[in-house]
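Table S4 entry, Nucleoside diphosphate kinase.
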Amino acid sequence: MERTFVMVKPDGVQRGLVGEIIARFERRGYKLVGLKMFTMPREVAETHYAEHRGKPFFEGLVRYITSGPVVAMVWEGKNVIAAAREMMGATDPQKALPGTIRGTYGIDVGRNVVHGSDSPASAAREIDIFFKADELLNYERPL
Ligand code: CMP
């Protein structure tokens, strides 16, 4: 079954949006198989955002993502990678549709509340950065 990596960023945690974001995925029907809260070390942030190294916003992005606790999750279910991106809305909250997470709770691309993997390759890479195999749990989720 498909899995994706979703992270509530420091602004989302500080604003008390963790429960709201988890609830949206649960109510949609997706299954939470991994969950942890931590403050990201700088070297992990640089690995996670390696593709943005060299971009003008990279240093600010790393400083922001390491500035406070994040909530990292792995969600499982049919088409969850694309569905999570749709539920989050465009990266820039100004372009995110109303009703999406960023379109409801964000106004600034540098404080966009939540992160989600953008492809199967990214999902595999990001899950591997943040979770050990035995931290991903199997259980029944009756509909
Ligand atoms: P995310 O989906 O976590 O992946 C990369 C992040 O870089 C993105 O969300 C934004 O938060 C951030 N980002 C992208 N473009 C910009 C920008 N122009 N200025 C600041 N941050 C950006």
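The first strand starts at residue 3 and ends at 8.
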